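Marked as duplicate of an earlier ticket. Keeping the data here for the record.
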Amino acid sequence: MGVCHPDAIPEAMPRLEHFLDQGQHGQMEWMQDRKAWRGDPTALWPAAKSVIMLAEAYTPDHNPMDNLAHPEAANISVYARNRDYHDLVKKRLKRVGRWLIDQAPETEIKVFVDTAPVMEKPLAAAAGLGWQGKHTNLLSRALGNWFFLGAIFTTADLEPDAPAVENCGSCTSCLDVCPTRAFPAPFQLDARKCISYLTIEHHGPVEIDLREHMGNRIYGCDDCLAICPWNKFAKSATELRYAARDDLTLPDLAEMAALNDAGFRARFTGSPIKRIGRNRFVRNVLYAIGNSGAARLKPVAQSLTQDPDATVADAAQWAASRLP
C-alpha cells in the first residue's frame, strides 16, 4: 500500500486529453464523458484529503506466452481465468475501510476498483507503489507487474509516501513484443490496436488486418506484461480464487464456439468474461479459429455463418475462408 494526496497527479489531465484528442480511446466513450472526474481526483470527491492505493498480486504460476503455442485452444488473459477481481478486491478494500473508520469514527471513505473514473495507475505511482512502464501498466520492484489496484479515498489527512521513480531504462521488450504494434511511442498506448481492448471493449467487427495478429487470444492479452524483465521479482499470488479454473485453462475452441447465450452465462457466472456477452465472446473465438490453421475447426466456423448476430456471422465467414 501507499498514500498520496488527491492533487498528486497534475499531469494526468493533459495526458488524458491528448489520448482522447487522438481518438486512441476507440469506442470507450465513457472516458470522454467522465473526463473531468477521471483527470482530476479532487473533482471526483472534493472532501477527500488522502488516497490510499493498495496492490494485490495475481501472479501466474507459468509463462502465459506459452499458451500461444496451442492455436487450437482458447487463450484467456491470466486475470480472467477465475473469479472477478472487482468483487474480491472491493470486499478487501471495504474491510480496510471499516478498520480505518474504527480507528477514527469521524473519517469518511469511498472505495474504487477500476469501474469508477479514477486514474489508478498514476495515483499508485504517486503513492510509491511503482511506476508506469513503457507499456503504460504499473511496474514494481517488489511485485513485478502482475497485480490489481484498488483505491480508498478518505477525508483523513494522511502522510503521503514518496512517489516512485521510473526504472525501465533502455528496455523496449514490451513495445517490441506487441503483435499489433499498439504502442505509438514509449509510455503511450493506442487502445484501438490493443488486443485487450479489441477483445473486451470493442463491439462490432474487428478490422481485417488486425484479426490475424490476435492469434488464439479470445479475452485480453498478456504479452507486454509477461515479457517484462521486472517479473523476476514478482510475488506469488496468495488468493486461490485468482488461480486458473481447469475449464478456463486452454479450453478447446470448438467447445467455446458452441456456447449459446444460456451456456455462456452458465459457464462464466462470477467471471469478468461474463460482461462482454455471448456474441462478442464467440466473435473472438471465431477469429482464433480462423487463425488456428486447423481443418477440423472449419465445420465449426461454417455452422455459425448464419448466426443471428451479424458480427458473429461475419467472423464465422472470415474464419471458414482461412481454413483448409
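See parent ticket for discussion. The first strand starts at residue 2 and ends at 4.
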